[in-house]
Backbone:
């Protein structure tokens, strides 16, 4: 099963690294967005099964990351959303996890960052094998 | 974070373990990221300098945050600390000393760029 993914992150460096890891894990990255608003549009257009969402993006067009997250979970609750953050604040992490985020990853990434994500995605996509 | 008080194991502009991790990923990830650094950072510095000249706290915070994130990808601790210091100043509403920190940041970015060119 090919799982289609969307990356929403304002850092081109982060997008590059996330794309690399997702591709390595066997996902097909169909789109990238650099704002939450752009990401929401691509989400509706591409209907990905997996989204990575940076929480620390500046608000654009009246939509910030949390608003985009809530909209995506409302419109497609089955979508796995991996939240990416540069700040390890427990409150922020708990907010997203309590509202249905699949995983919470802290930037900057290292060689261990994506292993717990891989394990959680295996549970989210039982038919997905890599 | 105060850049001068940041506890750094060495004065190296980039962390070699982080670089090795990126190199181990293969598929030109490291060299692509180095190319991105060379292409992106001068523009980010120019944006930050202009924002500082205007006293635009929002733009300062955003651009400094971006530079901090960029530094983190390479384990560039001093660059990260300097960008973080400017971000904090803008967040706290006091830009005293921010221009001086920017001068240090720009010099540090050049050090990081040269170090990255050597390892790509």
Residues:
């Amino acid at each position: 099963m090919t799982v289609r993914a969307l990356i929403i992150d304002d850092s081109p460096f982060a997008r590059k690294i996330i794309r690399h890891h997702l591709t390595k894990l066997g996902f097909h990255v169909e789109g990238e967005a650099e704002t939450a608003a752009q990401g929401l549009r691509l989400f509706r257009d591409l209907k990905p099964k997996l989204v990575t969402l940076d929480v620390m993006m500046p608000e654009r067009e009246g939509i910030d990351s949390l608003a985009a997250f809530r909209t995506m979970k409302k419109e497609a609750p089955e979508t796995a959303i991996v939240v990416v953050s540069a700040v390890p604040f427990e409150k922020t992490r708990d907010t997203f996890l309590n509202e249905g985020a699949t995983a919470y990853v802290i930037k900057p990434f290292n060689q261990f960052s994506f292993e717990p994500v891989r394990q959680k995605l295996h549970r989210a996509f039982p038919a997905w094998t890599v | 974070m105060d850049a001068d008080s940041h506890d750094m194991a060495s004065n190296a502009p980039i962390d070699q373990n982080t670089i090795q991790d990126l190199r181990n990923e293969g598929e030109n990830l490291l060299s692509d990221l180095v190319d991105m650094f060379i292409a992106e950072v001068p523009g980010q510095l120019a944006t930050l300098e202009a924002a500082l000249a205007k006293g635009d706290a929002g733009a300062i915070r955003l651009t400094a945050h971006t530079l901090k994130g960029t530094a983190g990808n390479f384990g560039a601790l001093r660059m990260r600390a300097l960008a973080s210091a400017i971000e904090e100043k803008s967040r706290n509403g006091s830009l005293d000393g921010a221009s001086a920190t920017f001068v240090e940041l720009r010099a540090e970015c050049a050090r990081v760029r040269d170090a990255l060119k050597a390892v790509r």
